[in-house]
Design goal:
Chains A, B, C, D: InterPro entries: Papain-like_cys_pep_sf, Transglutaminase-like. Four copies of one chain form a homotetramer. With 254 residues, chain A is an alpha+beta fold. The first copy, chain A, has two domains: 88 residues, Immunoglobulin-like (Sandwich); 145 residues, C8orf32 fold, CATH 3.10.620.30. In chain A, strands 1, 2, 3, 4, 11 and 12 form a six-stranded antiparallel β-sheet that branches. Chain A has a four-stranded antiparallel β-sheet with strand order 9-8-7-10. Chain A has a two-stranded parallel ribbon with strand order 5-6. In chain A, helix 2 runs antiparallel to helix 4. The longest helix of chain A has 15 residues. Chain A is globular, with a radius of gyration of 18 Å. Chains in contact: A-B, A-C, B-D, C-D. At the C-D interface, strand 1 and strand 4 of C face strand 1 and strand 4 of D.
Chain lengths: 254, 254, 254, 254
């Protein structure tokens, strides 16, 4: 798996990359290499909760970052319908935050919709119904949305890309009382391989990964970072304007 | 300090209270008492970062919660202009999340406004300029906003309550590259004493508390909880509809 | 039919009432009486297109307006499915404006939704499908919406009052290429009788009135005014803040 | 003055062009020529109020429309500060509609802002203050806005193009109780010459044209159409998706 990101930082700006494979219990980084041209001394951090890693630096001019990794991502399994939805009382305290609405996921507005549309279902059954609804009602179509598009807007537009599918899925799950969080990943089974946005829901005492676009089997995904929504998991966050020069992701199953 | 919250939970619902005084290093809970009628067995949690405490239970019918505490809240000081704004590289990793936009604080939209209006200032100087701008341009006026009002809307409306002032202050600080988070508190110097929403910014290696309404000296505030915005610090969060029966806060300096 | 509107205009303000029965070909005002206490000299206008009448004055203090009318509203008929949708080329030029999005009806955002949901139908058939969809998906529930609620929000909320049903209906029709406009009316068959917001669509060379709430048979409605959306047909528009003192509508079939 | 618009209508769609010089009393079309390749039989209409002309047809494939005109646009004069703002009672009935909020001009939200910022001024003085505020606070910057951008968003973004400046100007005038409407024009003094969006306000018993961008002297503008906002004056409106092939405007003072 290999990602190349070349961006121009003009004027110079603080930047945060979230592109390294997470140190998540289920996936093992066998080999890893990070090269930047010109050389950059990054500050590297890792969060305890997810094993997500961030690289920070003050960047200037054109910077080409190449990241390569060989990963054994274990044996993720799809979400079974029989998982159990927890009362809020039975959730770990640190999971509660993923019930709250966020920048792109105004779940507070969708209570009536989920009750009317998915009423009578809970847990994995509810999530599967939500995923089915999304697949039936939202078209995968680049160019409809942009980086400001919220789940409310995608709900109206009926189209978007993986980021939008994920925001809508998270929104409908949280509105259903199910903790949900955004996950960034490498998807080697996309054509071509690419960064991918999917999400996780907390059911039966664990996080389960689902892909609302249905484009990439979760078994093949390699986790990078997680957060409330795209605001937290962007692969590149900067303070000022930056310009894409070139970007590519390649990956293959070994 | 004494808070009484009586709400009707009909139909029964999961509920989370965030009303206890935080175990924050700067403030000491000398005495404390929590009574509910009828009796409720709460699950109680405390987060490491802020010392915020949550009470969770499945509630039904009318529940009257009374919380009393005697607190020594130390000696908080106002924000000095000479504090230093950090490059992102110099921020603790756990502070980075408070740079991101959130449900009610779309700081991603305000970059040009803060550059034009507060350009040439950084750090505490920038924050003081932001607070001054808010005081000059926003009226404290109940009834203009509701629980869905975002900082974007308050920026247009030019009026709101403490929650709205706080969201706008957070938004303008984050847009300025300064980490900012919402804080709930007891304000015994408000007339009458009440819950209050204020915010903290990270400067010179620490969190500084500011009150964008200017209504309550920060020296007299007693911290309860913190989060990205009002979605995280509501004193009562429920899954279904609930109805306020009665609510009061009393407090006095000892 | 009798309407009493008592409002307090404090501070004094310009005001426009749209509460008189329209001089629409299909309905005949047999008797009519307008009384204000204190006396107000209104400027009265009538538009050519709809026969809508406006009353204008500069008002001050409490003003009680009573309007009584006896109306023969002819024999309106419900919308048949066999009506024909026109190409834009075949529309009268003055009807084109009702294809455009307006303040509360952002029809430009709903093109993909109407294509997916009502694709394969046109004309009266399409409109009937839209009305059926609204009845199945939107609850009539006061308190969910306010005077700023747009059709986009109602589409998410899945609830509202007659104004919201009408905005959503107009939005989905315009997005379908069918001219649609908002109409205010007296509905003597509502319980209790009240002002009502419904809408008209242009099909088979004429305007057809429909009630998306299904609460009042169109046969019993008495037209007042028409416009792009609620911004144009409010029964009272003022420049400053005003306060409702009392308002009532009574009506009976003679 | 010469405009060439080449668009691809695929799939075929109804289309409305508003690109001909208006038959407005103040401007005289000396010569005029319209050519389409391939040939199109347009339905042509002209409205009484403004003299705006619309061309309608069902179009298919690539259509190149060329419009040439020689116009004597009389002697428009800039807005003097001494113009008088009318009470609503003194406005012609047909002007009232331009007090209402519209799709891109939510003037209902800006009452407090205009009172605080422009309080104490009325009429031409108020409008000049509004134009000055816009010039000081909004940057002319292509790429920030798109066809969905409202005045609310431009007020936050602090940047946009002529369409956005016009929407914001209209919004602030209507919020001030001054009728305002959007106007499309040819601006031969822009570099390069282009379609331009400006607006008119009703003061001292007449419409006055102003350019909130300050880029083109109103004396040189040639009126095309008018309406509530961009939804009404687009030079090309279609039912389906269309694709720009080529577009150019050339103009010179004779």
């Amino acid at each position: 798996m290999r990602a190349n990101l070349t961006w121009r930082f003009e004027p110079p700006t603080d930047a945060i990359y979230k592109i390294q494979v997470a140190h998540w219990p289920g996936q093992h980084v066998l080999e890893e290499r990070l090269v930047t041209v010109p050389h950059v001394d990054f500050i590297e951090n890792e969060d305890d909760e997810f094993g997500a890693r961030t690289l920070r630096a003050h960047l200037s001019g054109e910077v080409a970052l190449t990241y390569e990794a060989v990963v054994d991502n274990g044996s993720l399994k799809g979400l079974p319908a029989v998982t159990v939805q927890h009362d809020w009382n039975d959730l770990p305290a640190e999971v509660l935050t993923y019930l709250n609405p966020s920048r792109y996921c105004p779940s507070d507005q969708f209570g009536r919709f989920v009750d009317r549309t998915f009423g009578g279902t809970t847990g994995g059954d509810r999530v599967l119904k939500i995923l089915e609804w999304i697949r039936e009602n939202i078209e995968y179509e680049p160019g409809v949305s942009d980086t400001e598009t919220t789940a409310s807007r995608t709900f109206i537009d009926r189209a978007g890309v993986c980021r939008d599918f994920t925001h809508l899925g998270i929104t409908l799950c949280r509105a259903s009382g199910i903790p949900a969080r955004a996950v960034s990943a490498y998807a080697h089974q996309l054509t071509p391989p690419d960064f991918h946005a999917i999400f996780e829901i907390w059911l039966s005492n664990g996080w389960w990964l689902v892909d609302p676009t249905g484009l990439a089997p979760v078994e093949g995904l390699v986790r990078i970072a997680c957060g409330r929504d795209a605001a937290d998991i962007a692969f590149l966050t900067t303070q000022g304007d930056v310009r894409l020069v070139r970007q590519s992701v390649t990956a293959e199953a070994v």
